[in-house]
# Entry
Amino acid sequence: MGDTELELSPAHQQEALQKSLSTSSLSLSTSSSLSLPSSPSSGPSALPASPSISTSTSGDGGLPLTSSSSPSLDVITEGVGELSVVIDPEVAKLACQEVLQKVKLQKGELEVALPKELIEVTLAVTKTPTLANGVATHVRDEPVDLVPVKVGGCSGEEEELEQASASPSSGSGKSTRRRLKQPNSSKQSWLLRLFESKLFDVSMAISYLYNSKEPGVQAYIGNRLFSFAYEDVDFYLPQLLNMYINMDEDVGDAIKPYVVHRCRQSISFSLQCAWLLGAYSSDMHISTQRHSRGTKLRKLILSDELKPAGSRLRPPVPYPPPMATVLHHEHSLSPSKRTHQRSKSDATVSISLSSNLKRTASNPKVEANQDEPVRLTPQREFIKSLMGIGKRLATLPTKEQKTQRLISELSLLNHKLPARVWLPTAAFDHHVVRVPHTQAVVLNSKDKAPYLIYVEVLECENFETSNVPVRIPETRIRSTRSVENLPDCGITAEQRATSFYPVPNYDNDDEAWSVDDIGELQVELPEIHTNSCDNISQFSVDSITSQESKEPIFIAAGDIRRRLSEQLAHTPTTFRRDPEDPSAVALKEPWQEKVRRIREGSPYGHFPNWRLLSVIVKCGDDLRQELLAYQVLKQLQCIWEQERVPLWIKPYKILVISSDSGMIEPVVNAVSIHQVKKQSQLSLLDYFLQEHGNYTTEAFLTAQRNFVQSCAGYCLICYLLQVKDRHNGNILLDSEGHIIHIDFGFILSSSPRNLGFETSAFKLTSEFVDVMGGLDGDMFNYYKMLMLQGLIAARKHMEKVVQIVEIMQQGSQLPCFHGSSTIRYLKERFHMSLTEEQLQVLVEQMVDGSMRSITTKLYDGFQYLTNGIM
Amino acid sequence: MQQRGCVLPLSEEEEEEEEEDEEEEEEEEEGEKKTAMAQVEKKVGLLGLRTSSSKKPLKEKVVLMYDDIFARDDPAISNPRFWDELFLMKVNLEYLEAKLESLDGDEVLKIKNNINSLFHHCIQALGEEHQIKVVNALQTLCALFRGVHRKNKSATGFDIINMLMGFDKAELRMKDLMERLDSLLCGDGSESLKSLCLKLLLCLVTVTDNISQNTILEYVMINSIFEAILQILSDVSSRSQHGYDAVVLLALLVNYRKYESVNPYIVKLSIVDDEPTLDGMGMVVHQALTEYNRQYKDKEEENQGGFLSALSSMVGSMFVADADEKLSVQTNEAILLALYEAVHLNRNFITVLAQSHPEIDMAATSIDPVPTTPTTPLGTTPPSLDLMNSAELPLDPNLQTSNLLITFLKYSSIVMQDTKDEHRLNSARLCLIILTCIAEDQYADAFLHDDNMNFRVNLHRMPMRHRKKTADKNSPSRPLVCAVLDLMVEFIVTHMMKDFPMDLYMHCVQIIHKLICYQKKCRVRLHYTWRELWSALINLLKFFLSNETTLLVKHNIFHMALQVINLFNMFITYGDTFLPTPNSYDELYYEIVRMHQVFDNLYCMVLRVSTNAGQWKEPASKVTHALINIRAIINHFSPKIESYAAVNHISQLSEDQVLEVVRSNYDTLTLKLQDGLDQFERYSEQPKETAFFKELVRSISLNVRRNVSLNTLSQDVLLKEFSSIS
# Structure
């Protein structure tokens, strides 16, 4: 029986599902959903939502889906604003309870009347790609008990329904949705319509999840998460997990299935969750922490029991049941674990769901224990060793020693690469193949030892399934060597005969020297090829001229001297090597240049999918605030982009690994203003002139515009987030003239050592103003105008920003949430009550204040005295 | 599973049966032995006296059995268990070797069958479960090889093979032997056994003075134990105990008939690319060299203690050098040879050189971890701590990061200090050859010049009259190539002696040339104080001039002078590609102009020689041509400087003033591009160094042979170790 059902096509599934639902005597009349009441009367805001409502009818009637007419953005946002006021949590609660009630009533009938069909349905459901584990496992466990189990709340029921709705075959989804709507009152429909509308995005979902006190609504949203794009949800992962850890049961239960589901799918998601769970649980008291749900989930993930669904199916006696079943036990009145498990394995055998199972059945041992335990291990080990290096570096007294040790530690790490490890900050799937250890630098920090490494990776389809590249020994790279091997690269045959001795006999052994072939292969590659051509031509000029023409060649000594000074003058922007500031040189080197250089020196450089990444490893630093700042920055960046305000900011990715370690994606082509000033000994403006050209040049003007746009962006950020500790070491300047603020260690309610410095809204030094062309210049006015536009745009979307911060405040001991008014003050800084004119005045005031502020200057002086930062 | 289940009990049964057999044997022997026991006890009592009294000791049973072998008849006829018993007896190496040595040609022929048989049974005993038998067989084999060779100094290899194994059986026997040794080395057996195996092999390899005349090695070539050696090196624990012997063995095997035939060990060594193994090899070398450096430092500190330090600076270098020499630690050419072969043959090994790890302080960790391990011969104790493979490096802020190359450079700086001793001369030469190979390798050059890999390398400098022993422990952290250049400059400055080591100087100058070629090609602008190099080279030329007559008797100083002048030409014509600053180019001119006297004299000398007919005519004329640019510079700037001084009424121009003149007068100077300045002869062992390496290997063989001692492994230790096993 199982086999035939397995072969059901999606169409069949729908049919079956529909059939079962319609026959299941649940009174789901199409008419009730069609006659959604009162929506037109509630004003224009209902309109945008209506298309999606109309689609919901199509399920039954077989009408084509009208995937139509997504309204313009402005309309959407307005609609949202109003809707959020309209919805009444009480109503939602009522609605959900009603649903629950119905289900309870009907379950008895169902069970008796249509067990077989139900099995079919649920089987079909399990085959849909976005299956919920709860449902799927349960089906296998106790086919007959399917519905009765879902008594613990409406969550179970809705979960199942949501599964269907989330599946690509929207037909079944629509039909199930009616169930939810069925008992609706007029107000209830508002909430439902919002939830089903296209406007309903992750941000809103998170907001409702957080604000709604309704288990029903929370559970619905928990299910609804499945329907969002992974990337969208991932952005809110810290919020989701913080809610899971620190909020009540219901929210946790709503979130857990989604998290578990994603963990099963992805190693990197699993690790990300585990790290975040660990980090956000750390503020709890030790005793509660040990038993908290966050810690439990973390343990579960790290125990690697959340394996992909396929391998989950094998006879699993020795270890605790997978997450989903545990979930069920918590909520179900069903029989004991023992029977549950046995029946589960029975079911697995009889139904034999997939080819995976066949493989496990015929070859039980192989699948069960061989490669599974190492699913998460390599990456965890990799991260662990990177952190270990950081810890050990911190014990060394000088930068020089740190650097040397870093290099030697990394060279040892290199021995273990390539491996199935990756940098979580990267945007694409890859395997790490090599750490060019000599390129690593220790960053400036007084007592911690953050360091920056470059990492060579090979891009791949999927790092979980693609093969790990084979290790290539270091010496196999010979881009320069290949030049030597080229015939006629400057050495005439005659000359070679004299300069190369007859090779010893073992040299002729092809096998012995087959290593060379790889070196020669290098030449074929376009990039390296051009490069070696350069070398060749250089080489030829140097010696052929003197070789072939018998007439003596004369050169002027003056030319040599001139070339020397010219070539040296040509690279004025490289920084001097400073043992006390080893990162300056490394960071100053243009990224492309560095990539080319490292690629040339790498044995993997010839692969077309070779990429260079970099990452800052921080050990002993809490990056949770940084992550929060990243999220806020990212959100504001999106808002400004959406509102077409040309503010420029650069949120850099943060990976929180624990409450005191993590990784940061470095900003490429950027050095701190401190380094700029120390190395160049110029004012910022003069440095701009030196780097980009004279006032009137295109390059300078572009750089200046970039500077203004980024400055305005970061001034707003600094104001809104109350970013403190703004000294020149924490402000980067990139090669295009943008400034980038880094280090968000003091934001919102926290400030360094509570010295009360930096009372100004943001940092605006006269040097900055000089670069902008002075107080009276057009660019300075542009700067103020940008700030105003940016503030207006941010204000419009305040909720989206505040929400991020607010959720993270839950249960947090982070200094940025110190005091009770953090959120209130944050909201106040958006000045919702002010008119645009008033805002403009405000911006003027802030700029003036910052300009006049002595504290900024004073603070710089303070930093110089204490940290030697200019 | 089921199958396994069946097999296992079976094999256990078999084993049991075997064990029973053995027990029976032993019981039988017990009876026999009982009579002998009394003798043995007596002998033990006498043992202490044996050395002092000339009284002939009572013969042990084993000696009696040896006598049986040296009798004509097959000893197994009278006693069928003869061979079984033999290997249960403690070997008397001295007696066996002496006996073999005492035989002359005819006698040997008579007992050839018995010796063949002994050899054969030795090999068979190697496969025994009973480890005592294996140990005894290994030692007996060793005695056989040594005894036979000692006897037959003049005899051809074939005679020896015939005598030991018999022509017809030789191939088979040696195959068996090598296979047995291989499995002993690779198995998880006792470490002492492995150590013995390696010693047997070392013994076999070094029985002849000239390794290439050791015909038995032909079988070692065919039945390679290369893989076993690699395995020892790749494993941390076995490497720490046997790594040294393994590396020395490998170095020797590589040198077997290396110029005449295809040596499989050369081929195999050149293609190894397994990093743990290569690292292991590097670690062994690194530790041996570190140990040497440490011992030297200790000695040096000893010497400097007390009033002597004050005295020594006055008395001068001679005395101190002598004292040093007397006390000096024996150089270790074997390990250096191994390093050379690895660097020379295996490209992948180059990465190992740069593999950084913390400096190993041998003093802190010299406590031998395994008491049963015999002390390794050749002066080094086996390193007890293997830091390379411990996943985490030790946490000691005072520990300086080091790598094999740094250690090697330090070692070189010590060895090069004094080259009067033949061993040290050889070592210094080998060091320079290794550096030549390194300087030629692109990858090595890349990390030598890597701006991100900065190290402080404290080279040892010879105490000399005219300079204080530099106590600058704070040498700046620089790319490694600076240390190499420093070492070369140091060598150039300190070896201008009557017994001029021309070859070493040649290597030295070539290394510099190769490094500069790399810098030119890759446009590496090294921040190095080139001035020191220039003045060292100019001093060398000066030395040639003042010692022309004595040097010319032995050496072609013109070739050397040409090399030096061409180095200057590199700087003059290609300086724009690798000099760090425009100023450094000015300084080059300044230095040349300042020292113009030397160049003028050199020109006069080479001109004189090249105009006279004679053997130096041609090389000397080459130097005259090479001097063109330098002479042009001198001729161009000297008058300018003089007139500047005249115009400004300054008698003595300051450096800055001269530089100013130089800077303002470039444009009127034309130089001639010289041929092939940036090309060099690649290093090749053949034919130039062939003789050197033959001699070197010979001396290493002698040294190893002298130091391989099997007796260090006392029977007591073995018995203790094996009591639990058997």
Notes: The first strand of chain A starts at residue 430 and ends at 434. The first helix of chain A runs from residue 2 to 6. The two ends of chain A are 77 Å apart (CA to CA). Chain A has 44 helices and ten strands.
